[in-house]
Write a structure and sequence with these properties.
- The chain has one domain.
- The protein is built from six helices and no strands.
- The N and C termini lie close together (about 5 Å).
- By secondary structure, the chain is mainly alpha-helical.
- The radius of gyration is 14 Å and the shape is globular.
- The longest helix is centred in the first third of the chain and has 22 residues.
């Protein structure tokens, strides 16, 4: 597995974990939306705005929409995962563990 494949696999795992968290605590969608707002305030207009707009729509639609679109095995889902606000749902320790597992899966 090359480095890009490792990153992609890590992002898939992270988003699946985030979906589990959101199902357990749907109120955390507010944390995800708040992070999107913070990014917009800090970064202003960027080329990623079209994807951030789509994230806003997915957040408004709820967990099922996020899972259906972002956890899919498509190029579009991979792009959405790369500009994703779900980091607020996963701890640094969990990130490290997922990265180690992905790197060891070579």
């Amino acid at each position: 597995m090359n480095r890009q494949q490792q990153i992609d696999e890590f992002l898939v795992q992270a988003h699946r974990l985030a979906v589990v968290r959101l199902r357990e605590h749907p109120e955390r969608l507010g944390d995800v939306a708040a992070l999107m707002d913070r990014w917009r305030q800090l970064n202003g207009s960027t080329r990623a705005d079209v994807y951030r707009d789509e994230w806003d729509e997915l957040i408004a639609e709820g967990v099922d929409a996020i899972e259906r679109v972002v956890c899919a095995d498509t190029e579009h889902a991979a792009v959405l995962r790369s500009v994703s606000p779900i980091s607020v749902l996963i701890t640094q320790q969990e990130r490290g563990e997922m990265l180690r597992r992905v790197r060891q899966a070579r």
